[in-house]
Amino acid sequence: MNFPPNVKPEKSAYVQLLALAGYALAGVFVFTALGFAILFLMYGSKVFEPNALTGGNPEYLNGLKIIQICTSIGLFLAPPLLLAFENGRKIKDFYGFGKPKAEWIFLVFLIMICSMPFMEWTALINQKMILPDFLKPLDTWMREKEEEAMLSLIHI
After folding, report:
1. b/e per residue, 31-54, with b = 16+ CB within 10 A?
2. Which residue range(s) make up the domain with 147?
3. What is the C-alpha to C-alpha distance for residues 25 and 74, in angstroms, rounded to an integer?
4. Which partner for 135 in 72, 124, 131, 153 could form a disulfide, CB atoms 3.0-4.6 Å apart?
5. Can you give the pLDDT at residue 22?
6. 35 touches 82 (CB < 8 A)
7. What three-state secondary structure class fits 69?
8. Tens of pLDDT, residues 59-100
9. Is residue 2 in some structural domain?
10. Looking at the domain assignment, is residue 3 inside a domain?
11. Which of 52, 74, 98 lies at the terminal end of a domain, its last residue?
12. 41 with 28: CB under 8 angstroms?
């Protein structure tokens, strides 16, 4: 006697979307806590001081990178993997991963190359933008923060 394989029916898209949102929320909290645990092992209790991770102190730049990596993994990588695991299917089958066609890869690179001048143009417009007088304090603050970020990147 042939029995059909034990296949779970696929959940509706709304239930999967809700599960994915829940996994993303939980992943952010769990992986951020994991990042802070790593920082605690690296820096000790100094990492919990109010101004430790604001970006102004070059000593903690690597710590900020660790927090960013952990949070990104918890928000963007772990939830889709958990969703595929919950549905009981292989990740490759669930998301339809396959070997990419050479034409599509060529098209992606062509779009990237063609969009570079447009991206440069928008960056130049952004730099030349002048805010109205009532937003002058915001403009000054943003330019100071840009300069601080550039200086901290130079000192790395």
Report:
1. beebbbebbeeebeeebeeeebbe
2. 101-156
3. 8
4. 131
5. 96
6. no
7. helix
8. 888 888 999 999 999 999 999 999 989 888 888 888 888 888
9. no
10. no
11. 98
12. no
